[in-house]
Amino acid sequence: MNYPNPASDPPLVEMKGIVKRFPGVIALDGVDFELRPGEVHVLLGENGAGKSTLIKVLSGAHGCDEGEILIGGRKVNITSPQVPLEMGLRFIYQEINLVAEIDIARNMFLGCEPMLSRALGLVDKSALYRRAAEYLRRFHIDLDPHDIVGELSVTQQKMVEIARALVTESKVIVLDEPTDVLEDRSRNDLFEVIGRLKSTHQVGFIYISHRYAEVYELGDRVTILRDGRNVGTHRIEDLTLDEMIERMVGRQVSKQYPALPAPQDDEAIRVENIASRNVLNGVSLSVRQGEILAVTGLMGAGKTELGRAIAGVDRFDSGAVYVHGRPVVSKSPAAGIRNGIAYLTEDRKSEGLILDHSIRNNYALPSIGRLSPKGLLNHSRINREAREYMTDLKIKAPDIHTPAGQLSGGNQQKAVLAKWLGTNCKVLIFDEPTRGIDINGRAEVYRIMEELLERGVAILMLTSDYTEALAMSHRVVVLSHGRTAGTFDRGTADEEDILRLAIGSSADQHSTGSITQ
Fold first, then answer.
1. Does 211 lie in the same domain as 123?
2. Residues of the chain whose pLDDT is less than 70?
3. Using CA of residue 258, residue 268, residue 348, residue 385, what is the dihedral sign?
4. Furthest-apart CA pair in the chain: how many Å?
5. CB count, 10 Å around CB of 272?
6. Quick one: 111 and 153 in the same domain?
7. Is residue 457 part of a domain?
8. Which of 127, 274, 283, 391 is the most exposed place for a label (fewest CB within 10 A)?
9. In the prediction, which pLDDT does 251 show?
């Protein structure tokens, strides 16, 4: 581990006694934090613990109510996001922060374009697109620098955002859940770049992640937040994983993955030869009642496109969908719900929630017919059910009337889950169900899945997390280039087996092992 001498190397960032209040909530309560040159300082805590709020104070997105901030040993008054940027800080938030209307290259170099003449404002377009292509290749991002960002998937946009943060000369880079949507190759490339910038340029990284293996792989020190307070800063090697999690949640955490009940014999949904938009090429699968079928693969393999096609979000060119043996046609999400299919999108901000509306109203929207049987909204029932799901999923908010936009990323994901659970659909498509959710939140989501299985619900889980796919499903389907590369029964594969099929090197292999509980 790299520990610079604090006497000779002043901290890159010091935050002292930071307090931030929101209506009804103290988000940060006297938090201290320090980042040294050439270190990765991991910031851990449950959803709502204050991690993202602390970073937004540093970035100028939020002002702090009390406390002070020093950058390079000098006290600064961060009055706008421009202040930290001018001092060499770069931020990659959990939420996408790109300009949707312009292309990848211009997003990557926005504000630092290579110029033919700065005085005349002439951009060197040849250099712009050449350098953008170089960075995309470095991260194995198979995209054209001319592609418009708004037409990319969430995963692709996140990778562009990471590449953008690394094209400038930065002293401090803040990464909020950077690997949530990255495949293993791109994740390893990112870690290699971080290591090089640490050692050769003394860049400091503030790193937020719910993937605890990354803490030990990448981190030098860790600061743990709980309920808006700093409950300790430690060297990584001084804490075991169990100790780290106990400090984070304030108690011991039970087993993360439940033992799945055996699926029923009856088929809930069958998909035959779905083809769509040159992305899906004849995908077929079936899910029984009380079964979780995981679909995984590399970026661009077609996971999300498959889920959207089945649920009626997007049209598909050919193929068929059967629910309980009956052919169904879902030309819209509303038709999908009527056919018993609900789709939990991976893009919770733009597709999963109306951010200006309350948790209560978001919960009610897809169930409006059920909650207004005679044409009149049953407000007491809506309130009761919304409160029950807030309690069951441990959504951290003052009450059900809290706007969804005020929730942390993980709590927004839980709000999306709540509204679709309220539809009582018999087939649930979970697209990255635990992305951005802390260890307790994941356990809660898995517990809800287990309960749904016992009620006979079929779950199609689309996930880029191979560990989740293997541990939380009865079978795993691996997609590669829009086709089914293979299927593994529970207990018959590991992450390397999945990766080999995903990259296409063993597309002819197919596991038919038995399901083991």
1. no
2. 1-8, 94, 155, 181-185, 251-255, 409, 505-517
3. negative
4. 73
5. 15
6. yes
7. yes
8. 391
9. 67
Residue 449 backbone dihedrals phi, psi, to 5 degrees: -60, -45
The CA angle 277-283-288, to the nearest 5 degrees, is 135
258 with 367, same domain: the answer is no
Residues 284/273, Cβ–Cβ less than 8 Å:
yes
Look at residue 345 and tell me if it is in a domain: no
* Nearest one of 139, 226, 118 to 181, comparing CA atoms: 139
For the chain, what is the domain count?
A: 4
Q: How far apart are CA 232 and CA 360, in angstroms?
A: 36
At residue 183, the pLDDT reads 66
Tell me the backbone φ, ψ of residue 232, rounded to 5 degrees: 150, 145
Q: How far apart are CA 485 and CA 357, in angstroms?
A: 42
The C-alpha torsion from 53 through 58 and 62 to 65, rounded to 10°, is 90
Residue 238 sits in which domain range?
Answer: 1-88+171-252
pLDDT tens digit sequence for 418-471? 998 888 899 999 998 887 777 777 887 888 889 899 989 999 999 988 889 999
Helices (H), 40-96: 51-59, 82-86
pLDDT tens string 159-181: 788 788 777 778 899 998 887 76
Could you give the CA distance from residue 409 to residue 274 in angstroms, rounded to a whole number? 32
pLDDT at 253: 61
Asked if 84 and 130 sit in the same domain, the reply is: no
Distance CA(325)–CA(439), nearest Å, equals 37
pLDDT at residue 488, rounded to an integer: 95
185 and 279 both lie in a single domain:
no
Last residue of a domain, one of 401, 423, 445: 423
Strand partners, 280: 276
Are 321 and 269 within 8 A, CB to CB? yes
d(CA 279, CA 396): 38
Residue 350 forms part of a structural domain: no
